Amino acid sequence: MPSPSPQLPRPSAPDAAQTRPSAGRAAALAAIADALLILLFAAIGRDAHQRGEIITGVFATAWPFLAGAAVAWIALRLWHDPLRLWPAGVAVWLGTVGVGMILRAVTGQTVVLPFIIVALLSLGVFLLGYRLAVAGVRRLRSRRLQA
What we know:
Layout: H1 16-19, H2 23-48, H3 54-75, H4 85-106, H5 113-146
Helix pairs in contact: 2-3, 2-5, 3-4, 4-5
């Protein structure tokens, strides 16, 4: 009868702090993702309306929304937990659209109800959607680590 083999210590599963990016890195990634998705929104809108000036035009369309997102980030100090759906995602979404529309109106750009609705829906899908996906991935990882 063979002797039992000695039990080797099992490596411990990484805790949540080791699987999540640092707070500063998460904030930087979330801010970059927000900005890129706002630029994508502007690019899609300009393409749908067949407007020229591809690069400068996208930035001309996007800047009020980028400013709105920045106001939301700063006013609510969202860098503490920027990937949460609530309150960070909702604040960025509504700040982006709200401040963006105000800035568009003040600078003489188009602000009509259909555009407001499209911006609310599109930016909601973009800015809340990726945060929802991140929350799902985090949930799956934590379940896997608990198993």
